[in-house]
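Lecture 7 notes: from sequence to structure.

We start with a single chain of 274 residues. Read the sequence below before looking at the structure.
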Amino acid sequence: MNEESFSESRACRLAGMSRSLFNYESIKKEDPKVIQSILNLKEKHPYYGVPRLLNTLRRQGFIINGKRVYRITKTLGLTIEKRKKKWNRPFLPERKKLPEAVCVGDVWAMDFVADRLLNGTPFRCFTIIDMLSREVPGILVRQNMSALTPLKYLEQLRVENKIPKHIIVDNGSEFANKAFVLWCEKNRVGLHFIDPGKPVQNAYIESFNGKFRDEFLSRYQFGNIFEITVALRKWVKFYNEERPHSALDYLTPKEFADQEKTVLEKNKSVLKTG
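Now the structure, written as tokens:
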């Protein structure tokens, strides 16, 4: 403080601040290994927010809390701006009652996502998700999707996966046709159509499609369908086995599904012995 101004002690007293606080300089230094790990994760997965970064760092063995991760990402300018939520109307029309997933594999939700190759050629992706575990049984990519394409792909999937008890879809022609309805009846699969113009009724697949577009389709460019198929196979494996899911308490879909199966097997053994 100079002669024409207040002394430091008087200024601090008037401001209601201690001199020690006024002269405090942070000596906190961040672990360079933590910073490097965050940089590596953000470079590989730029869509990761603080909760998912925190969970992944803990999986890597770091002892760290959310405030610290937030502080580092904010300092490095790596935070993600939250999307503004759309204003909801105070009333909604009555929705059709849809099946609830009780066990893994009970209910699958399905839809289509469209995009374009580097040369502008359009293609479509047939997406499927398990509504309980959020596992992705598979994604089919084709330049053209006929009405029988979903049926053929489901027949391929049933070799490694049990077909679900229920399927939730929109009113597109790929699902709302005689062949698909008969296939569901033949295989004793409950087919449930959402109300026209109400994609919120199929929120699980809509949410997944948004992630699929942000984390895969928008990040890479492909010259042909074969390139997409090869890259997509790796991404689906990563999504199921490595990517922590916020709705599953940051377990991966496979970890969650394995836990559910273990619990069911224990319950069955208890009933048999009892």
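The radius of gyration is 26 Å. Keep this in mind for problem set 3.
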